[in-house]
Amino acid sequence: MAFPTLHRLAAALGAVALAAAAHAQDIKLGFNGDLSASPSAQSGQAAVLGMQAAIEDINAAGGVLGRKLTLVVRDDTSAPPKSIQNMIDLIDNEKVVAVFGPTNSGNAMAWKHIPNQKKVPVIGNVASGTDITKPMSPDADNYMFRVSMVDRYQIAALMAYAKKNPASKVVGLMAETTGYGSGGLKDMQEIAELQGIKPAAVERFAVGDTDMTSQLAKLKAANVDTVVVWAQGTPIAQLMRSMEKINYFPAVLSSWAADNITFFDAAGKTLAEKPLFMRTVSESNTPVQQKLYDRIGSKLKAPSSFSFALHGYDSVQIAAAAIRQAGSTDGAAIRAALEDLKTPVNGLLKTYDKPFSKTQREALTAKDLVWIKWKDGKLVPYSDAVITGLTAADFKQ
Amino acid sequence: MSQALLQALVSGLAVGGAYALVALGFSITFTTTKTLNFSHGEFVSAGAFIGMSVLFLVLGKPLTSTTFGADVPGGGGQLLALIGALGVMGLLGWLLYALGVRPFAGRPGMAWVMSTLGFGVILQSIGLAIWGPKPVVVPGPAGDEVIRLAGIGVRPQEILMLGVAVVTMIVFDRVMRSTMLGKAMRAVAHNPANASLMGINVNALMVGAFVFSSALAGLSGFLLAPIAQASLFMGLAVGLKGFSGAMIGGLNNPRGCVIGGFALGVLESMVNLWQAQWRDVAIFVLVILVLAFKPTGLFGGKLVEKV
User: Fold this and answer.
1) Could you tell me if A341 lies within 8 Å of chain B, comparing CB atoms?
2) Which residue of B has its CA nearest to A241?
């Protein structure tokens, strides 16, 4: 009895060893971002779904360098310490060749020194904070890339709109007191100055506030007719509800967080249709986008989060192209390849022709963005005389 | 500008109502058991989600839904939800006392701090597993149309919150001051050993205090959900502000706690009229100042800590 058991054990061990060896040949990609804790988690979940779809497609077509791609997913529950820990774990223990995410801009700021030191490229596909992709020091090799929205591009466009709109005579700024809000406020103030806009009022509110009537009363007293808001979906909704309370409705230009279904739900249909904002895509999908939507749409928490799945899909395709070009999984080689991609990458959002360079870190730029408003519960492209009249010279950043 | 002030006052009172209910909850367990439920905030969230679940069930939706869509539950459903929130939270309060406080109360050390905190973490994790982090917009029993009075706007739910908070305080105050139950509670608060010798069932009263305090958390969650949206994180800020209100008013004086809660709400709203980014700084500087000069709060009685 003892002998066959031993035999079987040896066979089993051998199989495990083989599996481990096969596994070791896979190219591991990591995702580190919030998947469960903050209201933005649904964006992270959507990005992971998109990444998984891209990996399936790449593997079905033979993988990269003859090896399969796998995804190691780590939830940072939106907490910076957890996000830092995940980053170290993904790079040192899991030996991933590139990291994607995070969901929250503040977490990227908390760990961006780590991938830069360990020379592992990061391609952000959710968080939009402007400073995330800046190099650690002016001449240092930069391992941060992004296929997502960028706060500063949006703000440049919103400010150009405010400047060009003949109905906007007095501009006010509002932001939530989180890292997201303060980062956006800094960009707003800088670009307002570039545009020669003097904000008549600058007001802040906490992310959990339910009543902003006091702040709005000050804007009203300053005769503000256009307010630019930087906050997450729910507080923007509370702001709209507070406007309704005091019956004061200036034109609202907002951060793209207004695309979140939580904003629509909380503001209600009428109020939700007021803010004008920007996105990388509307809900009118192109055929290739629709194909991905048909595959993963049922798993999305909200249809509006599909844009992140597109970012996720394209970010993996770009990474795969860079690994192919580098011919290795060495971080520095992949970074160099990303900065000089020889062949265009066919993504779902667009064809990426030399998306990155030593200084250009954003695959999606101002001209890829679309103006959006809510209409009957859907995110639809918006246009008016001001938007059609905007030229490249109007965008100052 | 006077209109803005009036608006700030009304808005502040509405927010203060939630703080006051939470502050009262802290006061009740503190006066009777000398312990606090450190996860009172999570209990507020839990109350909101239980109320919401009952509404889902009444509408025939699955418990794990995350949106009401266009469905608006009727008055009967809302009443059922209120009873559900009060009942389940009361039961949770009893559980908390039996499992998390009683075994440690009166012993040296602060084990009950950890166990009440842990209870909150468990509740939140269960909630996250069921509903996820997305906030849910909950329809209020009185609708959502802005009511305009003398140029200021307020939502029906805010008036309801304020009204229910005031009525609850008055009823509680009457019970404490003019019924046998109130007398017994005050006796236990004053000296549990003596109260026990007088034939008062001290243990039952302590259980009662936790049940009532948790039911209050459930009530504030239920009322707050249509204003702030039901979210598993909604209770954290309310819990902290409610506790601050209780500290300002005096933890061992229920009336003081209620006043402290309302005052804090109004103060926040007034600071917003000035510089909203300094609001939390202003609030907590005030709390520290009050405690520095009146360690037991503005209306608190003298506290003798026996070591």
Assistant:
1) no
2) B146
pLDDT of A325 reads 96
C-alpha distances (whole Å) from B24 to each of B92, B268, B296 are 18, 19, 15
Residue A373: pLDDT above 90? yes
CA gap A148, A40 in Å, rounded: 14
Q: How far apart are CA A181 and CA A169, in angstroms?
A: 24
Residue at token pair 């959507």: A46
User: Which residues from B are below 8 Å from A261, CB to CB?
Assistant: 134
d(CA B202, CA B200): 6
* Contacts B240 to A, Cβ<8 Å: none
CA atoms within 13 A on the CB side of B141: 18
Contact B37, B25 (CB under 8 A): yes
**What pLDDT score was predicted for residue B307?**
47
B147 Ramachandran zone, left/alpha/beta (phi>0; psi -120 to 50) = beta
Q: Would you place residue A15 in the very low, low, confident or very high pLDDT band (cuts 50, 70, 90)?
A: low
Partner-chain contact B7 A203, CB within 8 Å? no
Q: Is the peptide bond before A102 cis (omega within 30 degrees of 0)?
A: yes
Average predicted confidence (pLDDT) for chain A: 91
Residues A246, B67: C-beta atoms closer than 8 Å: no
Chain B: residues touching A (Cβ < 8 Å): 1, 3-4, 7-8, 11, 14-15, 66-67, 128, 132-137, 144, 146, 148, 152-155, 227-229, 231, 233-234, 237, 269-270, 272-273, 276-277, 279-280
Strand partners, A69: A27
Q: Which of B265, B167, B210 is nearest to B26 (CA)?
A: B210
Contacts of B131 in chain A (CB under 8 A): none
CB neighbour list of residue A359: distance below 8 Å, 6 or more residues apart:
none
More confident residue, B306 or A43: A43
Interface check A133 vs B, CB under 8 A: no
B106: left (phi over 0), alpha (psi -120 to 50) or beta: left
Backbone angles phi, psi at A374, to 5 degrees: -75, 140
A214 touches chain B (CB under 8 A): yes
Alpha-carbon distance of B88 to B222, in angstroms, equals 12
Q: Which residues of chain A make contact with B134, given a CB cutoff of 8 A?
A: 39, 41-42, 261-262, 301
For residue A362, what are its two tokens?
């954003």
Q: Per-10-residue mean pLDDT for chain B, 307 residues long?
A: 86 93 93 89 95 93 83 89 96 94 78 90 90 86 87 91 93 91 87 88 92 95 92 89 93 90 93 89 91 87 56
Give the pLDDT confidence of A203-224 residue by residue, as tens digits: 999 988 999 999 999 999 999 9
pLDDT over 70 (residue A290): yes
pTM over 0.90: no
Residues listed for chain B = 307
The confidence score (pLDDT) of residue A368 equals 87
Report phi then psi at B50, rounded to 5: -70, -45
Q: What pLDDT, on the 0 to 100 scale, is given for residue B82?
A: 95
Tell which wins on pLDDT, B56 or A7: B56
CA proximity to B231, closest of B135, B153, B306: B135
pLDDT in tens, A182-191: 989 999 999 9
Q: Which residue of A has its CA nearest to B232?
A: A37
A189: number of Cβ within 10 Å: 15
